[in-house]
Specification:
- The chain is an alpha/beta fold and 612 residues long.
- It folds into 3 domains: 4-261, TIM Barrel, CATH 3.20.20; 286-412, CBS-domain (Roll); 423-596, Alpha-Beta Plaits, CATH 3.30.70.
- 41% of the residues lie in helices and 20% in strands.
- The protein contains 25 helices and 21 strands.
- It is flat, with a radius of gyration of 34 Å.
């Protein structure tokens, strides 16, 4: 038995606390992101200060043991209403109820009297929001729907609490159609750095827009998470960042929270290494590669195979089936080459076709994705490149596919994927880069678009090989990531040795210079000792002339877009100007070059470590 158990037994019962009116209310603010106003407070209950039942967990645990949970919830609501009325606040009051207590609370009899006391009390019912907690499941939604209707008829609003966990399900949302949905803190904590949580909340947001519900993000504890939620378009939030539950709660936001809501920079949304669009491309059914082609039965002869190939010049192969199940594959070229040999037809024409068939063909279920099929490219058995493969539909023969079509499909998927995330560095690719530039421009946020390139990278790659070149690129990506604030600065990989940083950090200049210095010093370790001693490598230029190349270094060309100038520019124009600045940066000893985006014909002037 725990040491806490005797204390709980010695503590007054919950029934006694209710009878003696010893419960007290505390309130936590709920904030509107649009204007930073406190639109409401969640009323929460506490036991006597310093007692074993002070915490809500202990209080409700004892109530459950005593069988008076519903009575505790009713008393908690009335206590919160009385205390909130004394605060004389015009904001809304959010009250928590389990499904069981809420059902009893709206019934006739004594519980119905309690409901009338609540809705006829000192708080206008229009300012009350009833939150359905996750403490008990709603067994029958059809039976519970009238409960919600009675609440609304009384003038109150209805909210679904802790959505995404326990009993707060999508079916509950769809059937009860709450006015407000509070997203569970699990999905909110660290959302600025968690792509899966970000996508989960974005899905909730889409459903909220379709259902007409307003979202409240619970558990906000820092500015980074708040700004991501704000920029996603989430309406409201609650959490320790705005205020803890207090008897006398804040009437206005603290300066830190107010500044975060009004922050001029936009959030860098956490990006998964592969976006939904990329996944859609990679998960496209392989059926699109299927070629409808006749098959031959297992008992067919080689003459039957020859006749089919002669009548269908388009067939690269023919499948052999037993019933509807494919059992072998005959490649056209290999078969016809055999038939070209002397006396082959006379000797083998009337014999079973299985004699020259591949009895272990590659079988592909037509619902398999292109990405799943890509594993074939890495297999030891490469016969499918010549023979092709057999498509099946739940194990039944459905058609043929060629190795050429597989290679082409996989290549297209990988190219599409690279537009979203670079396969080497896993940094966002061209499409997310353009999307973030558009977000910056549409919000008129000031930023610096920095195009990063590596000098002398091609000679290094030619000399040391692609594997070592890839290591240099990964090192460059790490250096750039280390200088970026992930909540403010967007880092993307355009391709090859080209990167793009969209800086919103005020210290962008120092960060860019630090990246150049760190990379230039660290890149030396990728050279052989003799090349380091010699100051570079010997090679050939593009015209084949012997040339000496110095070490790989980093160059950064920067375009400054002033706050409020977003409407004047497009993402393509910004990228083009950054590329122009990058070309000049490659000629500068400092490695950094800056231009103004609003110059009609920019005068490219070197700025040692900063703006002109």
């Amino acid at each position: 038995m725990s040491a806490r158990a005797p204390l709980l037994r010695a503590a007054p019962g919950v029934g006694a606390l209710i009878a003696q009116r010893q419960l007290r209310a505390v309130f936590q603010p709920i904030v509107d992101f649009e204007n930073g106003a406190i639109l409401g407070y969640e009323g929460l209950i506490r036991g006597p200060a310093g007692s074993p039942l002070e915490s809500p967990a202990a209080l409700f645990s004892r109530a459950h043991a005593e069988g008076c949970t519903a009575a505790l919830e009713r008393e908690a609501a009335l206590t919160c209403i009385e205390a909130f009325a004394r605060l004389d606040s015009p904001a809304k009051l959010f009250l928590n109820f389990s499904a069981d207590a809420l059902r009893q609370f709206t019934e006739t009899g004594d519980a119905g009297d309690a409901a009338r006391a609540l809705f006829s009390g000192p708080i206008d019912p229009a300012r009350i929001v009833i939150e359905l907690t996750e403490q008990s499941a709603v067994d029958d939604l059809r039976d519970f729907a009238p409960v919600v209707e009675r609440l609304r008829a009384a003038g109150a609003q209805f909210a679904l609490d802790d959505y995404g966990t326990a009993n707060a399900s999508l079916s509950l949302w769809a059937r009860l159609q709450p006015d407000i949905v509070k997203i569970d803190r699990f999905f909110i904590h660290d959302i600025a750095n968690d792509p899966l949580k970000f996508e989960a909340v974005r899905a909730m947001q889409h459903f909220a827009q379709a259902s007409g519900a307003r979202l409240v993000a619970e558990g906000i504890e820092n500015a980074a998470d708040l700004i991501v939620l704000r920029d996603m378009g989430i309406a409201c939030g609650q959490g320790f960042f705005f205020g803890r539950p207090e008897t006398e709660p804040l009437r206005a936001l603290a300066p830190e929270a107010r500044e975060a809501i009004r922050a001029g920079h936009i959030a860098v949304f956490p990006e998964a290494t592969r976006s939904a669009a990329t996944q859609a491309a990679g998960t496209a059914p392989a059926e699109k590669m299927r070629v409808r082609a006749p098959a031959l039965p297992r008992h067919a002869t080689n003459n039957d195979v020859l006749e089919l190939f002669n009548s269908r010049a388009d067939l690269h192969a023919v499948a052999v089936v037993e019933g509807e199940t494919p059992v072998a594959l005959i490649n056209r070229r290999a078969f016809m080459d055999r038939y070209a040999l002397p006396y082959h037809r006379e000797l083998f024409g009337k014999k079973a076709c299985m004699q020259f068939a591949n009895a272990s063909p590659v079988l592909i279920e037509q619902t398999m994705s292109v990405e799943q099929m890509a594993t074939l490219l890495a297999s030891d058995d490469q016969r499918y490149l010549a023979d092709g493969f057999v498509f099946t539909d739940n194990g039944r023969y459905a058609g043929l596919g060629t190795g050429e079509s597989l290679v082409r499909a996989v290549t297209e998927v990988r190219i599409q994927a690279a537009r979203y995330a670079n396969p080497l560095t896993f940094l966002p690719g061209n499409i997310p880069i353009s999307s973030h530039i558009e977000r910056l421009l549409s919000h008129d946020a000031g930023f610096h678009a920095c195009y990063v390139d590596l000098n002398q990278f091609k000679p290094f790659n030619d000399q040391y090989g692609y594997w070592q070149g890839d290591e240099v690129l990964k090192f460059a990506a790490q250096v750039l990531a280390d200088v970026c604030d992930p909540t403010r600065d967007f880092l993307g990989h355009v391709g090859g040795d080209d990167f793009l940083i969209l800086f919103q950090s005020e210290s962008w200049r120092d960060l860019a210079c630090r990246a150049i210095q760190t990379f230039n010093a660290g890149a030396l370790r990728f050279y052989a000792p003799e090349d380091r001693r010699g100051g570079g490598i010997h090679g050939e230029d593009r015209h084949g002339n012997p040339t000496f190349f110095t070490f790989v270094t980093m160059a950064i060309g920067c375009v400054r877009v002033a706050p409020g100038d977003g409407a004047r520019h497009s993402s393509d124009a910004i990228a083009s100007l950054a590329a122009l600045a990058k070309r000049r940066a490659k000629q500068e000893a400092s490695g950094l070059f800056v231009i103004e985006a609003n110059e009609r014909f920019p005068t490219l002037t070197s700025v040692p470590g900063g703006d002109r």
